[in-house]
Write a structure and sequence with these properties.
The chain is mostly helical. The chain folds into two domains: 5-188 and 295-323, Rossmann fold (3-Layer(aba) Sandwich); 208-289, Tyrosyl-Transfer RNA Synthetase (Orthogonal Bundle), CATH 1.10.240. The protein contains 14 helices and five strands. It has helices spanning 18-31, 43-50, 57-70, 88-99, 102-106, 109-117, 126-129, 131-140, 154-170, 210-218, 239-247, 252-260, 266-291, 295-323; strands spanning 5-10, 36-41, 79-82, 146-149, 179-182. Strand 1 (5-10), helix 1 (18-31) and strand 2 form a beta-alpha-beta unit.
Protein backbone atom coordinates (compact mmCIF):
# COMPACT_ATOMS: atom_id res chain seq x y z
CA UNK A 1 0.00 0.00 0.00
CA UNK A 2 1.22 3.48 -0.83
CA UNK A 3 1.97 5.78 2.06
CA UNK A 4 -0.44 8.55 3.00
CA UNK A 5 0.69 12.03 1.96
CA UNK A 6 1.65 14.60 4.59
CA UNK A 7 2.37 18.22 3.76
CA UNK A 8 3.68 21.12 5.80
CA UNK A 9 5.88 24.15 5.34
CA UNK A 10 7.85 26.86 7.09
CA UNK A 11 8.42 30.49 6.18
CA UNK A 12 12.05 31.60 5.69
CA UNK A 13 12.03 34.57 8.06
CA UNK A 14 15.32 33.96 9.89
CA UNK A 15 17.14 31.32 11.87
CA UNK A 16 15.30 28.28 13.25
CA UNK A 17 15.13 28.46 17.03
CA UNK A 18 14.24 25.90 19.67
CA UNK A 19 10.61 27.05 19.74
CA UNK A 20 10.31 26.31 16.01
CA UNK A 21 12.00 22.95 16.41
CA UNK A 22 9.82 21.66 19.22
CA UNK A 23 6.71 23.26 17.71
CA UNK A 24 7.03 21.43 14.38
CA UNK A 25 10.36 20.15 13.13
CA UNK A 26 10.92 17.35 15.62
CA UNK A 27 7.52 15.92 14.62
CA UNK A 28 8.34 16.23 10.92
CA UNK A 29 11.46 14.16 11.46
CA UNK A 30 9.37 11.36 12.99
CA UNK A 31 6.69 11.53 10.30
CA UNK A 32 9.07 11.05 7.36
CA UNK A 33 9.53 7.36 8.19
CA UNK A 34 5.82 6.52 8.04
CA UNK A 35 4.35 8.92 5.47
CA UNK A 36 5.04 10.29 2.01
CA UNK A 37 6.14 13.65 3.37
CA UNK A 38 6.31 16.92 1.47
CA UNK A 39 7.99 19.75 3.39
CA UNK A 40 8.43 23.10 1.69
CA UNK A 41 10.08 26.44 2.27
CA UNK A 42 7.25 28.95 1.93
CA UNK A 43 9.03 31.96 0.45
CA UNK A 44 5.85 33.38 -1.11
CA UNK A 45 4.12 33.21 2.26
CA UNK A 46 7.04 35.10 3.80
CA UNK A 47 6.25 38.00 1.47
CA UNK A 48 2.66 38.33 2.69
CA UNK A 49 3.99 40.23 5.71
CA UNK A 50 7.56 40.94 4.59
CA UNK A 51 7.12 42.21 1.04
CA UNK A 52 8.82 45.56 1.65
CA UNK A 53 12.30 44.15 2.21
CA UNK A 54 13.21 40.91 0.43
CA UNK A 55 16.96 41.53 0.43
CA UNK A 56 17.68 38.66 2.84
CA UNK A 57 15.09 36.21 1.58
CA UNK A 58 17.55 34.21 -0.52
CA UNK A 59 19.94 33.78 2.41
CA UNK A 60 17.06 32.81 4.68
CA UNK A 61 15.98 30.12 2.20
CA UNK A 62 19.46 28.59 2.18
CA UNK A 63 19.91 28.73 5.96
CA UNK A 64 16.46 27.20 6.50
CA UNK A 65 17.40 24.32 4.21
CA UNK A 66 20.54 23.80 6.29
CA UNK A 67 18.43 23.84 9.47
CA UNK A 68 16.01 21.30 7.99
CA UNK A 69 18.73 18.79 7.19
CA UNK A 70 20.76 19.43 10.35
CA UNK A 71 17.64 18.80 12.44
CA UNK A 72 17.08 15.43 10.78
CA UNK A 73 14.98 15.88 7.66
CA UNK A 74 16.29 13.52 4.99
CA UNK A 75 15.89 14.42 1.27
CA UNK A 76 16.03 10.68 0.56
CA UNK A 77 12.95 10.09 2.73
CA UNK A 78 10.95 13.30 2.26
CA UNK A 79 10.39 15.68 -0.63
CA UNK A 80 11.88 19.00 0.48
CA UNK A 81 11.24 21.85 -1.93
CA UNK A 82 10.96 25.59 -2.47
CA UNK A 83 7.45 26.93 -2.97
CA UNK A 84 8.39 29.46 -5.66
CA UNK A 85 10.15 26.80 -7.74
CA UNK A 86 6.85 24.94 -8.23
CA UNK A 87 4.83 27.45 -10.21
CA UNK A 88 1.73 25.27 -10.16
CA UNK A 89 1.12 26.50 -6.61
CA UNK A 90 0.62 30.02 -7.99
CA UNK A 91 -1.68 28.95 -10.82
CA UNK A 92 -3.91 26.87 -8.56
CA UNK A 93 -3.96 29.77 -6.08
CA UNK A 94 -5.25 31.99 -8.89
CA UNK A 95 -7.97 29.50 -9.82
CA UNK A 96 -9.08 29.15 -6.19
CA UNK A 97 -9.12 32.95 -5.82
CA UNK A 98 -11.69 33.14 -8.61
CA UNK A 99 -14.32 31.24 -6.65
CA UNK A 100 -13.49 31.70 -2.95
CA UNK A 101 -16.00 34.03 -1.24
CA UNK A 102 -14.44 37.16 0.24
CA UNK A 103 -16.28 36.56 3.52
CA UNK A 104 -14.39 33.28 4.01
CA UNK A 105 -11.09 35.11 3.90
CA UNK A 106 -12.18 37.99 6.13
CA UNK A 107 -13.30 35.65 8.91
CA UNK A 108 -9.94 33.84 9.05
CA UNK A 109 -8.72 34.19 12.69
CA UNK A 110 -5.11 34.90 11.74
CA UNK A 111 -6.15 37.70 9.39
CA UNK A 112 -7.70 39.73 12.20
CA UNK A 113 -5.04 38.80 14.76
CA UNK A 114 -2.15 39.76 12.51
CA UNK A 115 -3.74 43.08 11.58
CA UNK A 116 -3.80 43.91 15.29
CA UNK A 117 -0.38 42.51 16.14
CA UNK A 118 1.52 43.95 13.17
CA UNK A 119 0.16 47.49 13.23
CA UNK A 120 3.62 48.83 12.40
CA UNK A 121 3.40 47.11 9.01
CA UNK A 122 1.08 47.81 6.10
CA UNK A 123 -0.37 44.37 5.49
CA UNK A 124 -3.76 45.47 4.22
CA UNK A 125 -2.88 43.90 0.88
CA UNK A 126 -4.63 41.47 -1.42
CA UNK A 127 -1.77 39.01 -0.93
CA UNK A 128 -2.21 38.95 2.84
CA UNK A 129 -5.99 38.72 2.69
CA UNK A 130 -5.79 35.95 0.10
CA UNK A 131 -3.00 33.89 1.65
CA UNK A 132 -5.47 31.16 2.82
CA UNK A 133 -6.14 30.50 -0.87
CA UNK A 134 -2.42 30.09 -1.46
CA UNK A 135 -2.23 27.85 1.60
CA UNK A 136 -5.06 25.75 0.19
CA UNK A 137 -3.23 25.49 -3.12
CA UNK A 138 -0.05 24.39 -1.33
CA UNK A 139 -1.93 21.52 0.31
CA UNK A 140 -4.38 20.50 -2.40
CA UNK A 141 -1.91 20.54 -5.30
CA UNK A 142 -0.53 17.33 -3.75
CA UNK A 143 -3.92 16.04 -2.55
CA UNK A 144 -2.38 15.73 0.90
CA UNK A 145 -4.12 13.28 3.21
CA UNK A 146 -2.85 14.91 6.39
CA UNK A 147 -1.50 18.24 7.55
CA UNK A 148 0.32 18.27 10.91
CA UNK A 149 -1.19 21.07 12.96
CA UNK A 150 -1.79 22.24 16.49
CA UNK A 151 -5.35 22.82 17.68
CA UNK A 152 -4.98 26.58 17.14
CA UNK A 153 -4.43 25.95 13.42
CA UNK A 154 -7.55 23.87 12.85
CA UNK A 155 -9.62 26.83 11.50
CA UNK A 156 -7.02 27.35 8.76
CA UNK A 157 -7.20 23.74 7.68
CA UNK A 158 -11.00 23.82 7.73
CA UNK A 159 -10.90 26.72 5.28
CA UNK A 160 -8.75 24.60 2.95
CA UNK A 161 -11.31 21.83 3.24
CA UNK A 162 -14.11 24.30 2.40
CA UNK A 163 -12.22 25.50 -0.67
CA UNK A 164 -11.79 21.89 -1.80
CA UNK A 165 -15.50 21.14 -1.25
CA UNK A 166 -16.55 24.24 -3.18
CA UNK A 167 -14.33 23.38 -6.13
CA UNK A 168 -15.56 19.77 -6.18
CA UNK A 169 -19.19 20.99 -6.07
CA UNK A 170 -18.80 23.65 -8.78
CA UNK A 171 -16.89 21.46 -11.21
CA UNK A 172 -16.16 17.83 -10.40
CA UNK A 173 -14.47 15.92 -7.58
CA UNK A 174 -10.74 16.47 -7.92
CA UNK A 175 -9.51 17.28 -4.46
CA UNK A 176 -9.61 15.16 -1.34
CA UNK A 177 -10.27 16.93 1.95
CA UNK A 178 -7.08 16.90 4.04
CA UNK A 179 -7.40 15.79 7.63
CA UNK A 180 -5.57 17.31 10.60
CA UNK A 181 -2.73 15.31 12.05
CA UNK A 182 -2.72 16.61 15.59
CA UNK A 183 0.86 16.41 16.74
CA UNK A 184 2.29 16.63 20.22
CA UNK A 185 4.29 19.81 20.69
CA UNK A 186 6.58 20.97 23.45
CA UNK A 187 6.28 24.65 24.27
CA UNK A 188 9.45 26.46 25.26
CA UNK A 189 9.37 30.05 26.51
CA UNK A 190 11.95 32.59 25.45
CA UNK A 191 14.89 33.46 27.66
CA UNK A 192 12.83 36.30 29.16
CA UNK A 193 9.79 34.15 29.96
CA UNK A 194 7.65 35.39 27.08
CA UNK A 195 6.84 33.37 23.97
CA UNK A 196 10.04 32.53 22.12
CA UNK A 197 10.04 34.84 19.12
CA UNK A 198 12.59 36.52 16.89
CA UNK A 199 10.66 39.76 17.26
CA UNK A 200 11.28 39.68 21.04
CA UNK A 201 14.98 38.88 20.68
CA UNK A 202 14.63 36.08 23.24
CA UNK A 203 15.44 33.02 21.14
CA UNK A 204 18.04 30.28 21.22
CA UNK A 205 18.72 29.35 17.60
CA UNK A 206 20.77 26.61 15.99
CA UNK A 207 22.92 29.33 14.47
CA UNK A 208 24.06 30.35 17.97
CA UNK A 209 27.50 29.12 18.95
CA UNK A 210 27.84 27.00 22.11
CA UNK A 211 29.35 30.02 23.86
CA UNK A 212 26.34 32.16 22.99
CA UNK A 213 23.94 29.43 24.08
CA UNK A 214 25.73 29.11 27.43
CA UNK A 215 25.45 32.86 28.01
CA UNK A 216 21.77 32.89 27.06
CA UNK A 217 21.02 30.12 29.54
CA UNK A 218 22.73 32.07 32.31
CA UNK A 219 20.65 35.15 31.43
CA UNK A 220 17.31 33.33 31.68
CA UNK A 221 14.72 34.72 34.06
CA UNK A 222 13.96 32.57 37.08
CA UNK A 223 11.57 32.85 40.03
CA UNK A 224 11.47 36.61 40.80
CA UNK A 225 10.40 35.95 44.39
CA UNK A 226 13.48 33.89 45.13
CA UNK A 227 16.18 36.12 46.66
CA UNK A 228 18.63 33.69 48.27
CA UNK A 229 19.66 30.35 46.80
CA UNK A 230 18.21 28.45 49.76
CA UNK A 231 14.81 30.18 49.53
CA UNK A 232 11.98 27.83 48.46
CA UNK A 233 11.40 28.21 44.73
CA UNK A 234 8.33 28.20 42.53
CA UNK A 235 9.32 26.24 39.40
CA UNK A 236 5.97 26.83 37.71
CA UNK A 237 6.99 30.46 37.04
CA UNK A 238 10.60 29.72 36.06
CA UNK A 239 11.79 29.66 32.42
CA UNK A 240 14.72 27.43 33.35
CA UNK A 241 12.37 24.81 34.78
CA UNK A 242 10.31 24.88 31.56
CA UNK A 243 13.49 23.98 29.66
CA UNK A 244 14.33 21.23 32.15
CA UNK A 245 10.94 19.64 31.38
CA UNK A 246 12.24 19.07 27.85
CA UNK A 247 15.94 18.47 28.36
CA UNK A 248 15.96 16.87 31.82
CA UNK A 249 12.67 14.98 31.70
CA UNK A 250 14.22 11.87 33.27
CA UNK A 251 14.84 13.72 36.54
CA UNK A 252 12.28 16.49 36.40
CA UNK A 253 10.59 15.45 39.66
CA UNK A 254 13.92 15.53 41.48
CA UNK A 255 14.73 19.00 40.09
CA UNK A 256 11.29 20.28 41.09
CA UNK A 257 11.65 18.91 44.63
CA UNK A 258 15.12 20.43 45.02
CA UNK A 259 13.83 23.80 43.82
CA UNK A 260 10.77 23.86 46.10
CA UNK A 261 12.90 22.91 49.10
CA UNK A 262 15.61 25.43 48.33
CA UNK A 263 18.17 22.66 47.91
CA UNK A 264 19.49 23.92 44.57
CA UNK A 265 20.20 27.54 43.70
CA UNK A 266 19.23 29.17 40.41
CA UNK A 267 22.83 29.40 39.20
CA UNK A 268 23.44 25.70 39.82
CA UNK A 269 20.14 24.89 38.13
CA UNK A 270 21.17 26.92 35.08
CA UNK A 271 24.56 25.16 34.97
CA UNK A 272 22.75 21.83 34.88
CA UNK A 273 20.56 23.06 32.03
CA UNK A 274 23.60 24.36 30.13
CA UNK A 275 25.09 20.88 30.03
CA UNK A 276 21.86 19.18 28.92
CA UNK A 277 20.92 21.81 26.35
CA UNK A 278 24.37 21.96 24.77
CA UNK A 279 24.48 18.16 24.43
CA UNK A 280 21.37 18.48 22.21
CA UNK A 281 22.17 21.77 20.50
CA UNK A 282 25.85 21.47 19.61
CA UNK A 283 25.67 18.54 17.13
CA UNK A 284 22.89 20.28 15.19
CA UNK A 285 24.80 23.57 15.24
CA UNK A 286 27.94 21.88 13.93
CA UNK A 287 26.04 20.03 11.19
CA UNK A 288 24.31 23.25 10.15
CA UNK A 289 27.62 25.11 10.02
CA UNK A 290 29.15 22.35 7.90
CA UNK A 291 26.22 22.34 5.45
CA UNK A 292 26.43 26.10 4.96
CA UNK A 293 30.00 25.71 3.71
CA UNK A 294 28.44 24.42 0.48
CA UNK A 295 25.48 26.69 -0.23
CA UNK A 296 25.42 25.70 -3.89
CA UNK A 297 25.06 22.06 -2.85
CA UNK A 298 22.16 22.91 -0.55
CA UNK A 299 20.38 24.78 -3.30
CA UNK A 300 20.93 21.86 -5.68
CA UNK A 301 19.30 19.44 -3.22
CA UNK A 302 16.42 21.89 -2.82
CA UNK A 303 16.10 22.23 -6.58
CA UNK A 304 15.94 18.47 -7.00
CA UNK A 305 13.18 18.31 -4.42
CA UNK A 306 11.30 21.04 -6.27
CA UNK A 307 11.55 19.12 -9.54
CA UNK A 308 10.17 16.02 -7.84
CA UNK A 309 7.31 17.97 -6.27
CA UNK A 310 6.61 19.63 -9.60
CA UNK A 311 5.77 16.31 -11.27
CA UNK A 312 2.89 15.71 -8.87
CA UNK A 313 1.80 19.34 -8.96
CA UNK A 314 1.63 19.40 -12.77
CA UNK A 315 -0.62 16.33 -12.83
CA UNK A 316 -3.02 17.78 -10.26
CA UNK A 317 -3.22 21.17 -11.95
CA UNK A 318 -3.91 19.51 -15.30
CA UNK A 319 -6.81 17.57 -13.75
CA UNK A 320 -8.18 20.74 -12.10
CA UNK A 321 -8.10 22.69 -15.37
CA UNK A 322 -9.78 19.82 -17.17
CA UNK A 323 -12.53 19.80 -14.53
CA UNK A 324 -13.00 23.55 -15.04
CA UNK A 325 -13.06 23.04 -18.84
CA UNK A 326 -10.20 25.48 -19.33
CA UNK A 327 -7.66 22.98 -20.62
CA UNK A 328 -7.94 24.41 -24.12
Amino acid sequence: MSKKIVLSGARPTGEIHLGNYFGALHNWVKLQDDYDCHFFIADWHAMTTGYEDTSQLGDYVTSLMADFIACGLDPEKATIFLQSEVMEHAELFLLFAMNTPLSWLERCPTYKDQLNQLKEKDITTYGFLGYPCLQAADILIYNADFVPVGEDQLPHLELTREIARRFNHLYQPIFSEPQPLLTETKVLPGTDGRKMSKSYGNTISFADTPEVVAKKVMSMLTDPARIRKDDPGHPEVCSVFSFHKVFSAFEIEHIETQCRRGEIGCVACKRKLQKRLLAFHQPIHEKRTELLQDKAGLRQVLRQGSEKAGLKAKATLKAAKRAMRIDY
